[in-house]
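Q: I have 205 residues here and want to know how they pack in 3D. Can you give me a structure?
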Amino acid sequence: MTITVPESRRVDDTAFRRLMSRNAFWERMIGAGARLPIRPLIEVDLGPIHLDRMLRTGPVVLVFVRHAESAACNATLLDFRTTLAPALDDLDAHLVAVSPQVPQQLATLKRRHDLPFLVASDPRCALINALNIGFDSPGADVILGAHRSVLPFASVVVADRTGTVRFVDVRANWGVPIEAGRIAAAVSTLDLGGSAVRRSLRSAP
């Protein structure tokens, strides 16, 4: 089934679960215990970034959004700026917002809200497709500035320093976003290894 952009905004969690059950989406999507696919991303200010290098210094929290013009995604990231980002910083975890929109357009989202975390483009949907969290949305290529019309479902993926996925939340849209506290709680249960050591050193007198 193909979901258009307007239709995707009307799909609630119950209908979304029925859709995924009918299309066996659950079986294809990334789940806890799986290995995080390592795909290159383009951060809007830094250029190419590599998840495997980030994992060497702390857990990675990937928040998938649609594009800079999405009001719901804007609201979620604005909230995460004041709630999730500080909590993850205390845990030495990397927060990365990922969208299939091209970097030039996605950069407006980061600068509009002065986001203190990474905002990265996945223009070829390499990571989105590897996680199986995307859906076809005809015409989305225009707003994305890309050659593909794939949008991600509202998704959060947490991976520990070994690259093992420990937490996944996938929803129909960002109308009912996942609570920042749940994400931070998931990260706090991980074995942070060297991150915990660095925190203790920073807090030492």
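Q: Anything worth noting?
A: The first strand starts at residue 41 and ends at 43. Residues 3 and 191 are 39 Å apart (CA to CA).
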